[in-house]
Amino acid sequence: MKWLKIHRYLLFTTCGLLLISSCTLKRAEIRYEDRSGVGIVQHGVASWYGKKFHGNPTASGEIYDMYQLTAAHKTLPLDTYAMVTNLENNRSVEVKINDRGPFVKGRIIDLSYAAARSIDMVEKGTARVKVVVLKRRSLIVRSESKGFGRGFTVQVGAFSDKGNAVKLSNALGREIRDVYISVFETPETRYYRVRIGHFNTRERAYRMAAQLADMGYSVLVAPR
């Protein structure tokens, strides 16, 4: 009889802990999945920030530019690159984490205006997203352009649909030289990243980024 009481107590305690855990998960709307060789996959709500912070220093020391593809995250290391997918329309954008935030409960990432516009969430203000942390050493990367190596490149778009990447690449190729597509693969998705140039210094990459920004593109300066 005593053993039966102890067994029931342990059963109720375990169920209670599981219930509390599931309720906490539902409230936070965040889920982490540890995927070997790829990094962290995080699900939750994204928001964006713009003019109010434009021109101010970020946590990384960089100046916040609302027209660059960047984001703020509470815990990811600064200078991490992540793929953010709007789960409501399946649009994706690759961003650089250079700031801390968001500081609103229940939100997992704050996108720059340009990044939010890329995945069509500016008007709504928030969106359910998936954040995939990119670990460069563990990625399978191929390039359709020769000379792949160290340095920097300027990224203009990232797509899960190769056709969209090819269309953008062709459009850019009519105006700019050295446009190429790099393929980034995870166990779940293959992304086609439209990139321009192979720059030995960050300054040269930024000059190209400024030219593209003047043409109306949202860009990301990234390691090659």
What descriptive keywords fit this protein?
single chain; 224 residues; alpha+beta; Barwin-like endoglucanases; Alpha-Beta Plaits; 2 domains; six-stranded mixed β-barrel; five-stranded antiparallel beta sheet; 12 strands; disordered N terminus
In words, what does this structure look like?
With 224 residues, this protein is of the alpha+beta class. The chain has helices spanning 2-28, 113-118, 162-173, 202-214; strands at residues 31-35, 39-49, 70-73, 81-86, 91-99, 107-112, 126-134, 140-143, 152-159, 179-185, 190-199, 220-223. It contains four helices and twelve strands. The strands form two sheets. It has a six-stranded mixed barrel. The chain has a five-stranded antiparallel sheet with strand order 8-10-11-9-12. The longest helix is centred in the first third of the chain and has 27 residues, at 2-28. The protein is globular. Mean pLDDT is 78; it is low at 2-38 and 136-149.
Architecture blueprint of SSEs:
Blueprint: H1 2-28, E1 31-35, E2 39-49, E3 70-73, E4 81-86, E5 91-99, E6 107-112, H2 113-118, E7 126-134, E8 140-143, E9 152-159, H3 162-173, E10 179-185, E11 190-199, H4 202-214, E12 220-223
Parallel strand pairs: 2-6, 3-5
Antiparallel strand pairs: 1-2, 2-7, 3-6, 4-5, 4-7, 8-10, 9-11, 9-12, 10-11
